[in-house]
């Protein structure tokens, strides 16, 4: 019988990522998980982090294709698509990007009236999020952090047919700090491994 070709090694059980990950708002460091970093609640359908590079690839006259050493990374956009199962007031307001809330009706409130609002986002409208997952062989989490996020895509709530999960699909986009345009507003915390 021929050998099975595979990339599996003795370290494979320690290096695979376990999803879907828990989503936290206002993450600053690992110590804030569950304290000042607030869990957004259950998700359904998974969560996804996307890092999109923007390249400048000059093509000198006569070059038959890309030239080694000339490509430059000039920008990076980082997004997180999160499918929130919990339709809390806070999650709905986050999804709308900029919103107001007031008791409804005003006299004897039974509801919160949440309304999208217009205008420039204030600095307090941006926040950090973290998607926290686990590696197969480690007790310390892997954390995908996006800084200075707000919601940038349309919010869709598909009411379905009653036979599937209804989620609040939200796309968060990280924004550069104008005081430090050289620093990409996202990072990954990965547990260190010993050889």
Secondary structure elements and their pairing?
Elements: H1 12-15, E1 17-25, E2 38-39, E3 43-56, E4 72-84, H2 89-96, E5 99-104, E6 111-116, E7 127-135, E8 141-151, E9 168-174, E10 186-189
Antiparallel strand pairs: 1-2, 1-7, 3-4, 4-9, 5-6, 7-8, 8-9, 8-10
Could you tell me the CATH topology label: Pnp Oxidase, Chain A
Named at the architecture level, the CATH assignment is Roll
Major β-sheet annotation: 8 strands, antiparallel
Amount of helix: under 10%
Uncertain regions: pLDDT < 50 for 5+ in a row?
Answer: none
Number of domain modules = 1
Over the alpha carbons, how many angstroms does the gyration radius reach?
Answer: 21 Å
Key words describing this protein structure:
two-stranded antiparallel sheet; 10 strands; single chain; 195 residues; eight-stranded antiparallel beta sheet; mainly beta; globular; Pnp Oxidase, Chain A; 2 helices
Short overview:
The chain is 6% helix and 42% strand. By secondary structure, it is mainly beta.
Task: Describe the protein's architecture and organization.
- This protein has 195 residues and is mainly beta.
- The chain has a single domain (18-57, 67-189), classed as Pnp Oxidase, Chain A (Roll).
- Helix content is 6%, strand content 42%.
- It has helices spanning 12-15, 89-96; strands at residues 17-25, 38-39, 43-56, 72-84, 99-104, 111-116, 127-135, 141-151, 168-174, 186-189.
- The model has no long low-confidence stretch (mean pLDDT 90).
């Amino acid at each position: 019988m021929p050998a099975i070709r595979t990339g599996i090694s003795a370290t494979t059980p320690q290096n695979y990522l376990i999803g879907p990950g828990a989503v936290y708002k206002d993450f600053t460091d690992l110590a804030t998980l569950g304290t000042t970093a607030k869990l957004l609640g259950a998700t359904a359908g998974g969560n996804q982090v996307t890092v999109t590079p923007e390249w400048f690839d000059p093509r000198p006259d006569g070059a038959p294709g890309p030239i080694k050493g000339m490509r430059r990374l000039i920008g990076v956009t980082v997004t997180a698509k999160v499918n929130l199962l919990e339709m809390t007031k806070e999650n709905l307001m986050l999804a709308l990007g900029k919103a107001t809330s007031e008791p409804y009706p005003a006299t004897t409130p039974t509801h919160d009236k949440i309304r999208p609002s217009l205008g420039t986002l204030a600095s307090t409208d941006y926040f950090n999020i973290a998607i926290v997952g686990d590696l197969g062989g480690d007790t310390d989490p892997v954390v995908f952090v996006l800084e200075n996020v707000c919601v940038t895509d349309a919010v869709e709530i598909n009411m379905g047919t009653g036979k599937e999960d209804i989620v609040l699909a939200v796309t968060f986009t990280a924004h550069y700090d104008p005081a430090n345009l050289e620093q990409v507003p996202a990072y990954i915390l990965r547990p260190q491994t010993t050889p």
